[in-house]
Each structure stands twice: as C-alpha cells, then as structure tokens.
Amino acid sequence: MAIPRHVDLLRTLVTLRYAHRTLQQKPRCYGRRVVLVDGVRTPFAQMGTDYQDLTPYDLARGILQLVQKKTNLRKELVDYIVIGSVLQEIKTSNLAKEAALGAGFPDIIPAHTLAHACLSSNQAVTTGMNLISSGVCDTVLACGVELMSDIPIRHSRKMRQIMLEFNRAKTWRRRVALLSKMTDPSVFAPELPDVAEFSTGEEYGHSADRLAAAFSISREEQDDYAANSHRRAQAAVDKGYLVDVMPFGIPGSDVTITNDNGIRHTSFEAMTNLEPYFIKPHGTVTAANSSFLADGAAGCLLMSEESAKQQGFVPKAYIGKYSYVAQDPKDQMLLGEAHAIPRVLSSSGMTLKDIDLFELQETFAGQVLATIKSLDSTWFSNNCLGLQEKVGLLPVEKLNSWGGAIALGHPFSASGIRILVTLANRLLQEDCSLGLHANCASGGQGHAIILERHPDHPGNAS
User: What residues does 36 pair with on adjacent strands?
Assistant: First the structure.
C-alpha cells in the first residue's frame, strides 16, 4: 500500500529534526566533572496558604521557568529533565514531562518523574549527575516539587470497586444492584495519605520523640535549636543571603509570592508553653521544634564542566562524591544522616575536620541534635557504623547558619535541592572550599553529598 504523501513528508521532517540535533551535539567522554551552575526555588509556603489553589503541575512548570530565567539558559541546550515528587497528582503521572512541555521546552527533551521520599530532589540531582558524568548528557535540569495543600485523597476501596464495576456494567439491572451496595456508610469514608511509616505504622514525630529520649536530648535543647533556626533564617533574609528565592506569580491571577511565610519571631519562652504534640504528656517534640508541612519547588542547572565553559557559564560548585544508605526504620528511622555522612567522607578520603560548612535537613530539632551526638559517640560508631573510632564532633557553628526547615518549611521533594543550593551559596558568601549536605528520609534512609566551590567563581552568592 502506498504511503500518503503527507505521512511521508512528516517522517522526513522528524528525521531531519533529530539529525540536526545529533549534529549539534559535541563528542562526549566518560567520567567528566559535574558542576552546579546555579539553583533557584519558589518561596516556601505553609500548607493551605499561598499555593492552596494550585496543582503540582503549576509549581513544576513554574520552577522550570524560574531556573531558565535565573541562568538565562537556552532551552534547546537541555538534554534531560528530572523532577522529584512524592505526592503525585494522577492526572500528570509523569509530572516532569508535562511541566517541561508547559514551560515551553522543546518536546524532544526526555523527562521523568521520581519519588524517593524526602530524598526525591537529592535523587533528581544525583540522577542528573550520573547522566552527565557517564557522557549520556551535557545539561540536565533537576527539580523537586511538593504541594501539600492538595494531596491525592482516594475513595474507599469499596467505593472504587463499585465505581469500576458500574463503568463495566452492561445492563440497568446490574447498575441498580451496584448502587444498592452504597447504602453502607463506610463506602463513603475517604482514604487519606498518612505521614507515617508503612512498615511500622509509626508517625515520624513519634520516632523523633524516641530518638530524643535515646540520646538524652532535652525539651530545652530542642526548643533552643528551633528558636535559633528562625533567628538565623530571618537574619539571612535581612542580609539578602537567600538569593535562590525568586518571586512566583500565581497562575491566573495578579498575585506574586515573594517571601517564605513560615519564619516566626517566636521566643524560646513562648515555645516552652506548647504541649507535646506526639507523645503526651511526657514527650519533648512539639509543633514549634518540628518542621512544618509546606508547599514549594526548587530546581537547579547541572552541566559538565566543559559544556558550562563553552556556553559561558561560571559554575558555583563541583558536585562531589555522594552516598545513599538505609537501616532499621523502627529503631533508626531518622538517623539516615548519621549513617550517610561517614560513608561519603570515607569514599572521599576526608574527615569532618576537612569540611568547612554543613547543611543538615531539619525535620525535627531532636533529629538534628541526635545526629550530632551519634557522630560523636564511640558506642554508636562501633555498634551501628562498624567503625573503630567515633566520626567526631560536627561543629554547630558551621551548621545551617542561614536557618533550616524548622523556619522555612519542608516540602518533601523540594527540600533537598533547597539545602544543596543554600550550601553552594554559603561556600561563596563565606569564602569556603568544601561543604557537606545530608538528609534523612522515611524507610530509615539517608543521603550525603559533598560540594566543592568552583575556583572560577568570584564569590558572593548572587
């Protein structure tokens, strides 16, 4: 059968398009150094506030546009886009690709969406890093998006089964019979996502309370750390250090969100008046010394070093070694950082003393303090890390000096890149060479990664 002329012409155009892109690509070698050119984020907002009427797609499309705007990147240079998202909207099952199309990136750019709990955007970064270092890509956009204000809520299983059978029913008699099953009130009970471990059924706050008790971390220590997080974040805002935050226009309105809305001027004394939130009445974890659920997106531009130079970019940092770990989600659910840090230091031939700056995820104040104590514990190092000597004391004066998730909020999939870009900006602002970022996640998992300031960057985070 003869092929219609218009189909044959379409095939020819597609072939020429891909051939042109192939000719534009330069030869790639393997094992290349990967650089973080720059990164941005939307302002983070408490759940149910500034972004409550949006969808994850709105934030994902917006963060891709913000990265492109901040870096002045030509969209056709992008080889791959990867976005992390935990609570995904079913209408955009591959959020990354839909957002890329909506943001105006060429439709020939492949993209995928991943979920790795609170490590989702960290995973997006290391996925992009591997694509570049292996020679598959030159330029990757890595992002993380979370919209807690509109989480997917399902009908009950009974209701879902009735609805599916109703859709397949061929006769009105069968449909009436199915509708009669809906007289049971339990059919209408929704199924909500739960911020808890599936394997243990334990809420993360309960894990934080047990962890604080195990390491003898007092309520006062946790409240003091949390109050300092707010003070540091506000000071960073006042000094203009949070240059990664870019205004985000709410689609379909004239409203533009310019600032994080979770920073509080709460005193230590006010925090002490709060009741324990998870374990009552004797727990030590409260709403004030925990991070809050938030909406937001963060993204960054990753490139091979040679490609960045060819395109005229001055990178902020090299991305160094990284580690992923996991352990018992019941006993050590929030100690992933304590396991990941020594592993990445060992693989890099470093110790804590070699690192200039640190950024840890502040899911709970008690979790951060427990991580610090565990690294300085000979017993923990011997029995949990398999090391003969303790890792050492992580200097608190070098830790999270611009605040953390307790003050800024914790959009699950966006926090990792937010912290990584903050670390890169701190290296420049504080004229330091090496930084380490670590994060914990559900399932007893953890991640750590090392950044090295790029020698060509003149300094200053902007």
Answer: 302, 317
